[in-house]
Amino acid sequence: MQVVQKIRCPNCGSEGERHYIAQSNIIRTQCPTCDYLLVTCSDTSKVIESYAPGIDSCRLNLRSSTKLSASSVSLQSA
Length: 78
Ligand SMILES: [Zn+2]
Prior knowledge:
Blueprint: E1 2-8, E2 15-21, E3 26-30, E4 37-41, E5 47-51, H1 54-77
Zinc ion (ZN) binds near residues 14, 33 and 34.
């Protein structure tokens, strides 16, 4: 038996799905918007497979915006 629950994606906040697959003791969380995937074992709570494509690019964007504001500050002071 498989139960599907609507959840908020922890990666991008869009509507995702959580599948409870009782037959194999697996909980599978997935988001079609950002391709987030998390497969955990419901018995041991161990992560079997995880994939979050947005996290690295978010960090890169933060870094580049920090560089931009830092350079604009030095321009203003000079
Ligand atoms: Zn998502």
